Amino acid sequence: MNKKIKEKIAFTIFRFLGLLVVGILVWILGFIIFHGAGVISWEFLTTAPTEGMTSSGIFPAIIGTLCLIAGSIIFAFPIGVMSAIYMNEYAGNGWIVRFIRIMTNNLGSIPSIVFGLFGMALFVNTLGFGDSILAGSCTLGLLVLPLIIRTTEEALKAIPDSFRTGSYALGASKLQTIRRVILPMAFPNIITGMILSIGRVSGETAPILFTVAAYFLPKLPDSIFDQVMALPYHLYVIATSGTDIEASRPIAYGTALVLIIIVLLMNTLATIIRKYFSNKVKTG
Fold this sequence. Notes:
mainly alpha; MetI-like fold; two-stranded antiparallel ribbon
């Protein structure tokens, strides 16, 4: 068998696997849309649940999910970016950086339910935040912190050293070089970490179960110290609890569809922001 035949066979396998992945994604989306689209209505999206979450809408859960996504990103994104800048631009390649990378990788492999227990012990009990948006956001922020650090560090490594050397040659300090040269060039790829983080935190149930999620709370939060409903936990509850699970199953599919749409919209927004900064770097 010559090299061209082997190459064609390999490419055929790769194409098949690629189409298989796309097919699985389309099948999942189609399944959720088929079973959940009939539930989606203006009332479903804008009203609070009633009768033990078996009727009316999911508006408080939508708002709660958006609050948790925003809070976790606000908490994790600056810390993750600054940590990556320190490791890549300041700390060199010593044992401290290697130790931080090992700990970051270990942190990223910890099950999410462990983060939930830790968040309950630290933020809910020790720091006195209680079951609140603040406690849930901090817990989710810790969950995605390793992802943001890794993606940011890789984005910084992708910038050639010639840009740093040229900036230093023009008299710029290290901080000026990072702020005016490195970060603007790496920012489009840094946004990738934020996109992945949004997808991660939006679907987590275990961390918010111990720190913020309410079983049935048909009202909007007044502050960051309030409990909220959240779509992942709401979906879990109506799909597994209640006297008539089959009757509430369409609501579960509708909730799942809304959650998917929210994630897609936020990822689309982040992608637009990434494209904007990418074009700005090219034209600048």
